[in-house]
Amino acid sequence: MGRSPCCEKEHTNKGAWTKEEDQRLIAYIRVNGEGCWRSLPKAAGLLRCGKSCRLRWMNYLRPDLKRGNFTDDEDELIIRLHSLLGNKWSLIAGQLPGRTDNEIKNYWNTHIKRKLLSRGMDPHTHRPLTPVDGAAASHEAASHGVVVRRRQQRRDEHGGAAVPRPEPRPVSGPAGCRHADLAPGLPLPPPRPPRRGGVQLPSGRQPG
DNA sequence: AAGACCTCCAACCGCTGGGAT
DNA sequence: TATCCCAGCGGTTGGAGGTCT
């Protein structure tokens, strides 16, 4: 439609946010409030597009965010809301104070989907799986590394190298904290709890 | 100890809907 | 009505880091 780009991409940073960028964004929103994301980067002295600023604020820097693992109650609420609303993550997030749509979306894709499959439920329809579905689901549950393999396949298609991105993300922050450590004195979110990383294989499956 | 495998999540991209002109 | 601008949404990705062999 001939729409102008959302920002002058050649003059913007991409990838992980630095401590200084976070501070600038927080300071600006503290004084001026949210809104007018398009003009915010320039006003705040950030070399980011407004979209990126909005995302960073909404998903990470907002002071009212609740960090930490989801409770069982939250799990069940998400499942119930998803059965009613589908993939309307923003609507679901609206019912979970302190949670973001991105966080819920990630949590759904990494945990709840599998939880439903293990219960013999179709995560899309929330109905019991048919035997055929069940076979497919158990296959999916047993092979949730499929995403990784798909990526591997794409990498293979690129000659074994990672599929190139416009700009590599800068390495930032200490271990377990991709964003740089942030300065004291600002209303920054508490650190995330230890991640539950590592191999959690479905029963009966051996890695490698 | 090293490498393979896997999880997790921040951040990206593209699209859509609504308001303004 | 048609077009443009913008904020917001949903899907997808890269890569850090944990676990296992």
From TrEMBL:
Residues 134-146 have a biased composition (Low complexity). Residues 120-208 are annotated as: Disordered. It comes from the Eukaryota. GO terms for molecular function: transcription cis-regulatory region binding. GO terms for cellular component: nucleus. Pfam families: Myb_DNA-binding. This is Uncharacterized protein. It comes from Aegilops tauschii subsp. strangulata (Goatgrass). The lineage of its organism: Eukaryota, Viridiplantae, Streptophyta, Embryophyta, Tracheophyta.
